[in-house]
Amino acid sequence: MADAKACAGRVERFRALMGERGYDAAILRNNPDLRWLTGAERTFDGEVAHTAVVTADGLWLHTDSRYFNTFQERLGADTPWQIDMELVDPAEWAARVVSMAHARVVAIEDSCSLAFFDAFNVACAKQSTACLVPRMHGDIVGLRIVKDAEEVELMRHAQRITDAAFEHICGFVKAGVTEQEIKVELENYMLTHGADALSFDTIVAAGPNGANPHAQPGEYVVREGDMVVMDYGAGYHDYHSDMTRTVCVGEPGEEQRRVYDVVRLAHETCAREARPGCIGSDIHNLAVEVITDAGYGDYFKHGLGHGVGLEIHEQPSFGRLYDKPVPVGSVITIEPGIYLPGRFGVRLEDFGIMGEDGYHPFTKSGHELRVVG
Asked: Residue 267's CB: how many other CB atoms inside 10 A?
């Protein structure tokens, strides 16, 4: 059942923002935002099937019969949300609630479709309800940057599963298995050891495929001497973990060892220098500096890290374009890499929380290069 106290705190944070902006009501349809506000775990899927209206003193949620019972079970009898599964167009339903609440400034998330936006305005006109309809631009996404205690514990739990999966897979990877077989083994382990979902499509990239940061696992057969990049994570109650480790099948060559050591140095330097209020792009640029000084600057092009939570990619970011401070309570990855086309790649990723005194990884797996097989 949803943590009522945590969810009440989230609703109050959003209502405070609504008050600052002059909104009488807000209409929400983005599933991660609805999960964050309601606390209804393992209820939302890929469909845009729910609509919420939030006012200063009311919480309404429209859904359909596929989800209604689950919402009731997840939220409990004492929930402040009024849950409705009336067979009516969501935009018409929202217009009716707005009229009943006498709201005159009604904000709509910019993630809503244009069709919904237009239908809502038409429905308001039909019932002679006059209101201004400003668009919200990532307002709740911004609030979600700072995690509460419940969110942090769910991600810590997900990472414990992910760390255990790494120990398991190190005993599985050897010459002769395919990337796809490694992927299946990793995912099966997580799903049979506490995960209720996968964070994202698992990346397993061996040998020359490791030079492609988002390579898709295929029929490539792992060979002696290959570096194998594995980027994966467990999902738990809608929250994500994210971790990358690179292992070597047999003893690494001199350059493989050197590249790994540079990536590790970049990672650990950035983790050490990350502090509350640091500018995200500054930490990214620090990784670039370390890798460039080692002679591999042309082979690290992606961002250093991203926020993690209800979505696998959230704010804030350790990216070259993120010029905002990273606050206490944000959860973010650090994942430098070097990718040598046609040869091999190395990436090393932890994710953790920005504490008062610096960055604290949830990831417990070590940074040493593991030799497997």
From this structure: 24
